[in-house]
Amino acid sequence: xxxxxxxxxxxxxxxxxxxxxxxxxxxxxxxxxxxxxxxxxxxxxxxxxxxxxxxxxxxxxxxxxxxxxxxxxxxxxxxxxxxxxxxxxxxxxxxxxxxxxxxxxxxxxxxxxxxxxxxxxxxxxxxxxxxxxxxxxxxxxxxxxxxxxxxxxxxxxxxxxxxxxxxxxxxxxxxxxxxxxxxxxxxxxxxxxxxxxxxxxxxxxxxxxxxxxxxxxxxxxxxxxxxxxxxxxxxxxxxxxxxxxxxxxxxxxxxxxxxxxxxxxxxxxxxx
Length: 272
Known about the structure:
By secondary structure, this protein is of the alpha/beta class. The protein is built from ten helices and nine strands. The protein has helices at residues 19-32, 43-57, 71-82, 107-135, 162-181, 200-205, 207-211, 220-232, 242-251, 256-268; strands spanning 10-14, 35-40, 61-65, 87-92, 144-149, 187-192, 196-197, 217-218, 237-238. A seven-stranded parallel β-sheet has the order 3-2-1-4-5-6-9, sandwiched between helices. It has a two-stranded parallel ribbon with strand order 7-8. Helix 1 packs across helix 8 (220-232), helix 3 runs parallel beside helix 4 (107-135) and helix 4 runs parallel beside helix 5 (162-181). The protein is globular. It starts with 9 loop residues before the first strand and ends with a helix.
């Protein structure tokens, strides 16, 4: 399958108002000339990005305010984004976390996390995959692409982020399965699994305070660039960063129980 074309194509990004989603949106506009559909809860941030990127990059930017923990908003995102334009690529990036002892995670917050990180992702994929396939016209450009932004937490056990890791593990395996099911269709599926990133989510959860300037924390900009390249090249599963890849490789040779203990020791220090 040919490399994904992005210039003047419409790309939808969820969780676009901050962190990795914001960095991806900025690079899509500035470096690839893509038109954007930005989805997030904070409308004022989306509107500020729209103004900035349209003026600086001569691209079109539409915004959709939505809470992806709400089923009706998820359906509206699909209908509103595909109603008057052809979407070529979809980046499912929105997510929330909880850092602490699982017993301190209130049930309503867990349900919201499950809806945002898992249910909305599966539903949007279910809606966009057939749309991207049916939209492709042979000889009129390369096929579209769908990228699932998961996490290394979906590949390795993470005590004190157990619920978050569980949602990411589901999406990681679900997306890898879809890759095989759709491999003969005119659409590509990429699973992108970063480690720690300097974002609002890590700051608000307390992870940034605990890990600080650790070598395990990457910048949103560098992770965004690696992720976009992976989507363009239609890669299967990508983990950014040499150190992260070493961890994943070494995990193949250690007992799962040991991996859990190592992670628990690393994360426990920041838990009150």
